[in-house]
Write a structure and sequence with these properties.
Blueprint lengths: L11 H4 L7 H11 L2 H14 L3 H7 L1 H8 L12 H28 L1 H20 L4 H29 L5 H26 L5 H7 L2 H13 L4 H6 L3 H12 L6 H15 L4 H4 L6 H16 L2 H14 L4 H29 L1 H27 L9 H19 L2 H12 L5 H30 L2 H20 L12 H5 L12 H5 L3
Helix pairs in contact: 2-8, 2-9, 3-8, 3-9, 3-17, 4-5, 6-7, 6-8, 6-22, 7-8, 7-10, 7-11, 8-9, 8-22, 9-10, 9-18, 9-21, 16-21, 16-22, 17-18, 17-22, 18-19, 18-20, 19-20, 19-23
Amino acid sequence: MAVGGFAIDASSAANGFDSRITSSVLLTCFVAASSGLIFGYDIGISGGVTTMRPFLEKFFPAILRKAASVETNMYCVYDSQVLTLFTSSLYLAGLVSSLLASRVTTALGRRKTMIFGGCIFFSGAVINGGAENIAMLILGRILLGFGVGFANQAAPVYLSEIAPPKWRGAFNTGFQFFIGVGVVTANLINYFTANHSWGWRLSLGLAAVPATFMTMGAFLIPDTPSSLVERGKIDEAKQALQKVRGPTTNVGPELEELIRISKATTKQEERFVTIFERQYRPQLVMAFAVPLSQQLTGINIVAFYAPNLFQSVGFGNRSALLSALILGLVNLASILVSSSIVDRFGRRFLFIAGGIQMLLCMIAVAIVLALASGVQGTESISKGNTILILVLLCFYAAGFGWSWGPLCWLIPSEIFPLKIRSPGQSIAVAVQLLTVFVLSQTFLRMLCHFKFGTFLFYAAWIALITIFIILFMPETKGIPLDSMYMIWAKHWYWRRFVVQPQLNVENLS
């Protein structure tokens, strides 16, 4: 059921397990959720450093020459495939590692996978901070991407497995919150380092700090009982369960349930292939559609290139970085709003209302840019119009923050039955990172050629995905995991795929 604005696993009430929140479970979930810092920090940092003059002078001098040319319209100043490769290479590497991470987490456990991802991310941060050429920059970004891929796969699974079943959704919200914290922190650092010749090195190198925090924290927490049982370490699983549930709690029934679930899932030899069976078509479609749609709202493109965008439309360098910081703060605040209303109004309401809000803002931004800068983008934009664009993008970021932002992580954790949960999460993360790579690689060129039409492009996608939600996304609010098959069985379209005997399998979730 829904309690306190967080998604609650109502099925726990039937299990009869002690779901108290102990200091140990708070600490372990805090550390795991903080894995979102490295993803958020990178989202915020990359766009900021690409507006720093010393960074551009060293690696992308052609952009400065283009900016100084009176013949270049404002949309094309940052159109550079090498510059976009600097940003998007991380997400291609993350795509590869997220697909590998499913096997790694099964073989080594969730905790070791987070440690592994943190170490790789740390090495990438060191290389980027000391980069002397483009090759070092790209190599560093690739290593950062591998780290992000492993962390994004392992951390949400860790949170789902270690948290008391009754509070699973509440703890999962922390991952998106820490992504927002990472974005804001990165924008703040960019703002204060922008005027120094070495500022870009500090901004890139400081990515090692959240990686260190996550890695060292992971050494101090236990692996999840589910992972330990899966690998046959029953005694260690009992100790881990006792630690997070409290020393006086009888963990025997919960441990027996984990062992029963593990034995049932090990009988499924082709676990990854299972998700492609017809009866799981609804979940498979959502594994693709939800992360794909989240990125087609354009949010990460705005986050990556916000400083470039604001500088292009008339803000100075410092003002552009400050504007990006404001966007990050608005997004972070809206995530908190989402946590207080998601179980009161439901997922569908937030998807639809947030989609409409973002749609109107994107259309408004396109209209302002078209009227203020001309169709070709050659006219100067007044200070009033640049502030108006910032306000509109703040409303856009708020709409995302209380809808598609946290729901993209929440929905996959709710809809997958046990035996396709791991491949389902792998697919969702991989689709998200692949989409980010493609969009980040093409955004600046699209901005140059489509001009204000770029925002209409994303507005059209937002309209389509909002219609998709209205037609095909059932409400999951307050539905126990072991009864989740019912939302598909009762849906006007998905019911044709649902096999009623699924209930016997889903009761294991």
